[in-house]
Structures are given as C-alpha cells and as structure tokens.
Q: What sequence folds into this?
C-alpha cells in the first residue's frame, strides 16, 4: 500500500507533476476539433477477405469506409492474446502480445506465396470448414486461433529454412523486432511455450522449478525449445508488422484508432508469472455492493502490489502505456476508479477498499495518472468513469484534463435525463458500451415511465408514443442530440447505427453469446443494403450538420 507520512507535502509534490496546458482542455488541443466515430470490435468486422471474424488488415477498408462518412475515430476492444479456449479479451495471457486470431491471411504476400499454405487452404476439408466459419452469425475466435496457428507454423517453417538459417535481411528484421520488444517478448514466448508443453495448465500448477522461474531450469528449457520460442516471437513479429501497416494507413488518412487498456490481469498471464511480487495472488479485486448487486462482485483477478510497483518506479505501468501508445491514438482507461482504490476480496474476512483513507486514494490516483500522461505522449487517455465514482475522482480527472464518459441512458438526475447540451466538452458521449444492451434492446427493457421521460428528452412526445416500438425517428433524434452536444468526442456502437439488437457482452455470464457479435453484412454492402444505407446516410449528414454548427 502507498504510504502517506506527510499527506500535504506528498499532495503538493504530485500536484506539481500535473501538466496543465494553456488551452481549455487537453482533448481539444490534441484533436483540434470535435470528432465522431464508431465502436466496432475487431472480431465484428465482415469483409470479403477475412476467415470468419475481423482481422487486422480489415481495419484499412473499415477506416476508409468511415472516412467517406465523415467519421474520424474507430474504437476497439482489447486485441491481446487469450488462451486457446478463452474468448473474453479481458482475460488475456499478456498485456502486450496480439492475438493470432486477428491475423490477416488472404491476400497477404507472406501466406499467398507459400506453397504449403496454398495447398492447406485449398483442401476440401478446410474449404468446407472455412465456409462454415464465414456463414456463422457469430465469430468463432477459438477455432480461428487454432486454424491460424496452423498456417503460421507452415510459413514459419519456410521462413526458418529460407531466411533465418541463411541470416537474410528478413531474418535481421525479426532480430531487430525481438530486440525492440525485449522487455516483454522474450518472457512471453517462453511462457507460451511452457504453457503448451504443460498442456495449457495454469502456471500456478506447473512443476515447482518452472513455476518459480528457477534460472537453470528455464535456461535448459530455452535450449531444448529454442525453435518453439523463436516461433512465438516470429508470430508476434508478423502480427505487429500488420498492425504497423494499419497505423501507417490511419496516419496518412487522418484517422484515429482508440484502443482499450484493461485495468486488471488474469492470474494466468505472462506478466504475473514473470513478476509475481508485483501482485497479490491471495487477494482478488471486485466491486462493492451497489444498485446492480446487493453483495458486490468478485472478479477473481489478482490485486496489484502497489508498494512493490512504486519501488520500481511504476515501470510495469510505464511499459504498458508506452506499448499502447505505439498502437493507438487514444486509449480507454478501464475502471479508472481502480487507479485510486480497489475493492479487495480476501480469501477470508470481509472485503475492503485499498487504500482505505481518501487522502491515500488521491495520492495513488494522481501518481498513476501522471505517469500515464507522461508515457502516453500524444496518445490521449479517456477515463472509463462509470459506476460508483467518488466526487474527488471526477474532480481530479477534470483537473488533469482527462475526458470521462457520458452514457446517454445513465446521465440522469433521479428519473430525469440530463440534456446532452449540458455535457462537459471534456467528455466522450455515447449511447452505450460493450457491456450494455443496444439502444434498440434498451428501449424494450425500459418501463413506460422511463420511456416517457426519454421521449421528453428527445422532444418527440407529440409524434411518438411510449407504447410504440423504437423507430428510426428516435434514433435520428438521439444522433442529433449527441452530435450536437459540447462533448469533444462522440463514439457510437455500430449496433446502434444499424439498429441491431444483438449485444457484445452480458456481464456476469459466460457462453457463446458473448464476444462474438459480427456485423450482419459485409462492410462493402452497407451503402447498398436498404436496411442500413438510410441509417448510415443520416449519420453522415448529422455529422456534417454538427461540424457546421460547431
């Protein structure tokens, strides 16, 4: 726990670290003007070139499409690699490694020119398999991850014999990448290879010498499995190379990408195995009792050991932010209240806030957010400040000029909805998140009283009855109000533009209904399909109107 021997001196020191630019807010200073965008998980994108779920290079046509409709930012969910049977992007094996499920294959030179890959993909069984994946309503990331590892093994075999063993220019590029990412990649490749060797058991159940990182044992394992470790490094090189192509395209076409930085890590992750002293495995983090849960929530994720992290100058967080800043223009800081305090669920005894004292919470939050701003550079942090947030947290976010979220359905005083014209400029306005129901489904969930209040906010009570179904008139009014609000960022879930009922995730549940939502048609078909083209056109015109009025 962070100490606070002289809270006034400590707070003064932290206050002096906070950068306060001359402009009214850091967000408008960096974005220059109001910007609108879409939230689309990568796995949700449908194109002619992917194998049943969105892939990295699909982001290029996606951004091009958005650009033609005056949308300037694409928000995504985390893209970190998960275990073979895991689908939640918030239960990753790493805070750095990209998931091979998102590898782009078709139309890429590396795979297109490999004879073994072409033969594999051309086989009747695989063609049948691929067709089934493409026709599925939802993305099957577990199957795709296994398939793409098969393809990666094939191209790696060619690379190893034709490039690596001959020490070619391509081999030197991989060597440079391994060196550049050495702070996390070496341990991750080793961790991954041990996991596979141990049949994907949690690292806590590995043999003692592997679990406890015995130096001689790990050294021998590296010798015995050198090619397998190199393979994982190669996989990340291919993925990061594709991501670099996307980043370059975004930069040259003036598009922004917003990523997601999960607050916590899975216990069964490379980072915790590498540095267990930075975490409390015997303490899990959750949420205190609130209107949604009388008993609170236990997320089963380990608590940070802040005292040890501070001794190391928060270097783990610094690396994490630097790597995220390489990938994104904006980053969503998940569960930002956790930067100040966490709800700890011990194995025995009552849960509690850590740290308990408000002064210590303020010190911790300011310290960590100052580090994030320092390491993020031109990358803009956005705070996920939902739930039970103490007033001092939002005051500090405003003081440090970090935008929070304005979720339209939750911006209320009692049962009265706050008009979007009253939103703060330093905010991101939206209709929902990956954890909420869609706009269409939300309307179906609402009581008639809430519907009436919402229609009053939209000023359409004279033309729309609370008993009626949700309509495009209501959708258009929602878009007009949000885009006309002072919020410097307006990012809308793709389902709320297409008026889809299917959601991305239902918190507290596990199953195939989560983390698999796919767009109903190909990206290239949105402007031709009569179900969607009018909605997209209205969004585009609404953005233009907001730009002219702004």
A:
């Amino acid at each position: 726990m962070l100490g606070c021997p002289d809270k006034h001196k400590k707070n003064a020191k932290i206050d002096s670290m906070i950068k306060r630019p001359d402009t009214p807010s850091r967000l408008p200073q960096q974005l220059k003007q109001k910007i609108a965008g879409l939230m689309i998980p990568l796995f949700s994108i449908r194109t002619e070139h992917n194998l049943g779920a969105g892939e990295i290079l699909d982001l290029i046509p996606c951004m091009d499409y958005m650009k033609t409709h005056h949308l300037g930012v694409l928000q995504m969910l985390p893209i970190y690699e998960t275990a073979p049977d895991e689908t939640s992007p918030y239960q990753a094996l790493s805070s750095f490694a990209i998931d091979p499920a998102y590898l782009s294959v078709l139309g890429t030179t590396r795979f297109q020119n490999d004879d073994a890959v072409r033969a594999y993909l051309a086989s009747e069984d695989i063609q049948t398999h691929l067709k089934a994946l493409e026709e599925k309503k939802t993305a099957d990331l577990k199957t795709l991850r296994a398939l793409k590892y098969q393809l990666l093994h094939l191209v790696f075999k060619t690379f190893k014999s034709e490039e690596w063993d001959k020490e070619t220019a391509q081999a030197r590029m991989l060597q440079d990448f391994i060196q550049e990412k050495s702070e996390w990649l070496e341990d991750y490749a080793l961790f991954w290879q041990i996991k596979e060797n141990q049949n994907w058991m949690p690292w806590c159940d590995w043999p003692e010498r592997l679990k406890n990182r015995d130096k001689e044992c790990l050294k021998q394992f590296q010798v015995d499995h050198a090619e397998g470790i190199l393979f994982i490094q190669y996989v990340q090189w291919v993925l990061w190379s594709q991501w670099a192509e996307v980043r370059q395209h975004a930069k040259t076409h003036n598009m922004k990408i917003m990523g997601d930085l999960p607050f916590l890590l899975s216990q069964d992750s490379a980072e915790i195995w590498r540095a267990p002293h930075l975490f409390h495995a015997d303490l899990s983090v959750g949420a205190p009792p609130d209107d949604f849960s009388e008993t609170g929530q236990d997320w089963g994720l380990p608590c940070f050991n802040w005292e040890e992290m501070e001794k190391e100058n928060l270097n783990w967080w610094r690396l994490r932010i630097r790597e995220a800043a390489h990938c994104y223009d904006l980053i969503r800081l998940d569960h930002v209240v956790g930067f100040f305090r966490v709800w700890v669920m011990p194995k025995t005894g009552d849960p509690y806030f850590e740290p308990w004292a408000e002064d210590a919470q303020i010190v911790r939050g300011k310290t960590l957010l100052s580090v994030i701003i320092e390491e993020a550079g031109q990358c803009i942090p956005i705070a996920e400040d939902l739930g039970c947030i103490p007033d001092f947290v939002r005051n500090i976010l405003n003081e440090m000029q970090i935008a929070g979220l304005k979720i339209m359905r939750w911006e209320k005083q009692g049962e009265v909805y706050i008009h979007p014209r009253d939103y703060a400029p330093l905010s991101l306005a939206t209709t929902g998140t990956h954890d909420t129901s869609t706009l269409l489904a939300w309307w179906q969930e609402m009581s008639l009283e809430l519907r009436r209040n919402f229609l009053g906010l939209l000023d359409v009570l004279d033309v729309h009855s609370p008993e009626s179904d949700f309509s495009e008139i209501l959708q258009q009014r929602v878009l007009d109000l949000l885009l006309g609000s002072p919020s410097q960022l307006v990012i809308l879930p793709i389902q709320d533009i297409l008026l889809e009922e299917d959601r991305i995730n239902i918190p507290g549940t596990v199953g195939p209904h989560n983390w698999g939502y796919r767009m109903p048609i190909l990206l290239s078909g949105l402007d031709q399909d009569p179900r969607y083209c009018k909605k997209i056109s209205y969004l585009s015109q609404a953005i233009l109107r907001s730009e002219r009025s702004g």
Remarks:
- The domain at 29-543 is CATH 3.20.20.80 (TIM Barrel).
- Residues 1-24 have pLDDT under 50 and may be disordered.
